[in-house]
Amino acid sequence: MRPAPSRSRSITGTRKMIARKMMESLAHSAQLSFSSRVDASHLVATRAIWKKAGLAVGVEDLVLVAVRDSLLDHPDFNATVTEDAHQLFDEIRISVAVALADSLVAPALPDLRGFSIEAVSEARRDLVKRARAGQLTVAEMSFGTFSISNLGTTRVETFTPILNGGQAAILGIGRISSTPFADESGNLGTRPEFSLSLTTDHRVIDGAPSGAFLTALTEKIEMGLPQPPGTL
To answer: Which 8-state DSSP code applies to residue 109?
Structure first.
């Protein structure tokens, strides 16, 4: 005999709306996921340099800059998809997943083209603060061109993010952990690493360009992050 549940929670309100949107996303797109391991040594060092310079730049801020720059070189990913069109945008308005007490929202940052790392960090922190205070605008909740979901503050290493709001791509960020590796000479050591998980709509983006985008993004994080002025 099936036991009676100890308690039951109705799926209503915001939670029901989120559930509906998730199911619609899966039902109306051909979602395909890719992952890469990233050497986070440069990322961790760059964050420390910015902190020493007086700016508490987060890991997500630095990844956002790398994503912005990668989207400039791979515009097919800065896009939305309808049944009949792959719609590319010049503006880069990245949606950022924010976990609330009983729900999840993904408001969009303003157009990040031309933003310094300082401006990106300030814009993201302001967006998260207002999301948690229930002060988001309709425009911020209505439209984005790409999404990021960061679970790096948890024990999650990799996951498969679901496309958001008809967008062509979403990036998942896992936690940074100390990982064994061998250098080019075969010497063993450890270094900080983390995973990136990219989900794309396979109706308009194939595997090869997805691999090229994820490779370019990985290389920017490993080698090309912005440094404070005057830093060698």
So the answer is: P
Between vectors from CA 17 to CA 12 and to CA 19, what angle results, nearest 5°? Answer: 90
Q: What are phi and psi of 218, to 5 degrees?
A: -60, -45
Residues 38-73 pLDDT 10s:
999 999 999 999 999 998 899 999 999 999 999 999
Alpha-helical runs (H) found in the chain = 13-27, 41-52, 59-73, 117-132, 138-142, 207-223
Q: What CA–CA distance (Å, rounded) separates 224 from 204?
A: 28
51: which 2 tokens?
């902190």
Selected from 3.20.20.80, 3.90.1570.10, 3.30.70.1350, 3.30.559.10, the CATH number assigned to the domain covering 15-223 reads 3.30.559.10
pTM above 0.85, yes or no: yes
| CA 129 vs CA 64, 100, 133, 140: distances in Å | 17, 11, 6, 13
54 in the Ramachandran plot: left (φ > 0), alpha (ψ -120 to 50) or beta? left
Residues noted as catalytic? 202, 206
Domain boundaries, the chain: 15-223
